[in-house]
Structure formats: C-alpha cells, structure tokens
C-alpha cells in the first residue's frame, strides 16, 4: 500500500474523543457540536451518487482492494447479507461498507456491517427516547432530521470488502473510506461517525451511530 494513503486511516481532525469533558461533544443528545458540522456539510455542494461510487472505487484500488462495479443496491428492505458473503467470498457477513443518502442527494453516513437501516425520529420530541436502555434513534437519523432532510430509502451503496489488506479490519477500511470521501470534497452529514473505533460507539457514547 502506498504510504500516502496511511493518513486516511487516522482519526479525522476534530473528531470528539472518548471521555471529552464538558458538554460531551460526541453526543447529539448533550451537544450541538456534531449538529453544527452537519449544517456546515449541507451548505457544501453535494456530489452525485455515481461520482461517490467512483471515488470509493479509486480508494479501494489504491490500497489494493477489489473495486465494486454494482455498488448501487435497490430494494434495500430485503438485503440478503449471506448471499453477498457467498458471492464475494467474504470472511464475514459484516464485511461490507454501506452509505445512505438523503432524498436531495447528500451522503448521510458511512457505515460498516450488516445493519443497513433508515432509522430517523418522527419529530424533535423523540430525539431522546430510549428502548431497552439505549437511544431509540441513531445519530445519523437525528442529524438528518435536524437539518430538515429525509432518507432516500429506495437505494443504498454497498461495498463488499473482498480482500481487506493484512493487518487491517473492516472498521479501518470504514474510517479510511469516509476520510477519503471528505478529502475529495464529498459532504457527509454525520461527519464523524466513521471515525469512531470499534466498541467506542456502543460502550462510551451511545448516541453515536
């Protein structure tokens, strides 16, 4: 792998870190830090879905991974993760990166694993609702609602991680893809989500995606 690509695997500057004091900027429930970034992103020029696919495939190629020609998946309510695993000979059904978009074409979040969803609160009153002790609505959904947008649930981008380089995990690739998109001027509403290390989101900042 070209050493120039190493920077994309590093946490993006400005990402709220674990145990930050004060108003807990990692959480949309206690801070406007991530919301302010979301508003900044939707004031940028959006990049088409097709161009976003090209950018991600360029990155995958640069780090020696397989490009995905058919990344735009329709009918996302019935995704067969096991079929994807079998077709691409993945080690795990969780070895996929996926991106969802708003109805007006903004990338909402870069995510990883077999949990494609279009979770979004129905109103601001519901932001802090919990279910089984956890936040009911995830960060990207709350942010999209806060910037007055809606998910486009007609499609999702899925990139099976066919040949993850030795020494890296799917979470490393998730972070790097997100940061590469940012470096190529692709606005992402939930700007920081892909930067959080595995385990951080669930254990320490439950509002995170």
Secondary structure layout plus pairing:
Layout: H1 33-42, H2 49-62, E1 72-74, H3 81-88, E2 96-101, E3 107-112, E4 130-131, E5 134-135, H4 139-146, E6 155-160, H5 170-183, H6 200-203
Antiparallel strand pairs: 1-6, 2-3, 2-6, 4-5
Features:
6 helices
| Head-to-tail CA distance between termini | 29 Å
Structural class computed from helices and strand pairing: alpha+beta
Number of strands: 6
Task: Average the pLDDT over all residues and give the rounded result.
Answer: 90
- Strand residue content: 5-15%
* Morphology: globular
| Main sheet characteristics | 4 strands, antiparallel
What's the total helix number? 6
Helix content: 25-40%
> Which spans of ≥5 residues are poorly predicted at pLDDT below 50?
199-209
Radius of gyration: 16 Å
In N-to-C order, the SSE pattern is HHEHEEEEHEHH
Quaternary organisation of the protein chains: single chain
Give the strand line-up of the largest sheet.
1-6-2-3
Describe this structure in words.
The chain has 209 residues and is an alpha+beta fold. It contains six helices and six strands; from the N terminus they run H-H-E-H-E-E-E-E-H-E-H-H. The strands form two sheets. Strands 1-6-2-3 form a four-stranded antiparallel sheet. A two-stranded antiparallel sheet has the order 4-5. A hairpin with a 5-residue loop joins strand 2 and strand 3 (107-112). The radius of gyration is 16 Å and the shape is globular. The two termini are 29 Å apart.
């Amino acid at each position: 792998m070209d050493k120039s690509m190493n920077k994309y695997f590093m946490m993006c500057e400005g990402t709220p870190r674990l145990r930050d004091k004060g108003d807990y900027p990692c959480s949309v429930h206690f801070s406007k830090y991530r919301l302010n970034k979301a508003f900044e992103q939707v004031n940028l020029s959006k990049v088409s879905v097709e161009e976003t696919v090209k950018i991600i495939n360029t990155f995958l190629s640069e780090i020696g991974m397989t490009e995905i020609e058919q990344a735009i998946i329709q009918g996302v309510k019935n995704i067969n993760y096991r079929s994807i695993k079998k077709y691409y000979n993945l080690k795990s059904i969780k070895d996929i990166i996926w991106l969802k978009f708003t109805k007006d074409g903004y990338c909402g979040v870069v995510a990883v694993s077999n949990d494609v969803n279009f979770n979004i609160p129905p109103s601001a009153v519901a932001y802090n609702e919990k279910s089984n002790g956890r936040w009911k609505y995830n960060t990207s959904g709350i942010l999209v609602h806060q910037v007055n947008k809606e998910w486009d649930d007609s499609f999702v981008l899925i990139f099976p991680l066919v040949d993850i380089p030795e020494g890296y995990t799917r979470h490393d690739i998730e972070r790097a893809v997100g940061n590469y998109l940012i470096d190529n001027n692709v606005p992402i509403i939930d700007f920081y989500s892909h930067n959080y290390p595995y385990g951080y989101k669930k254990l320490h900042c439950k509002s995170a995606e």
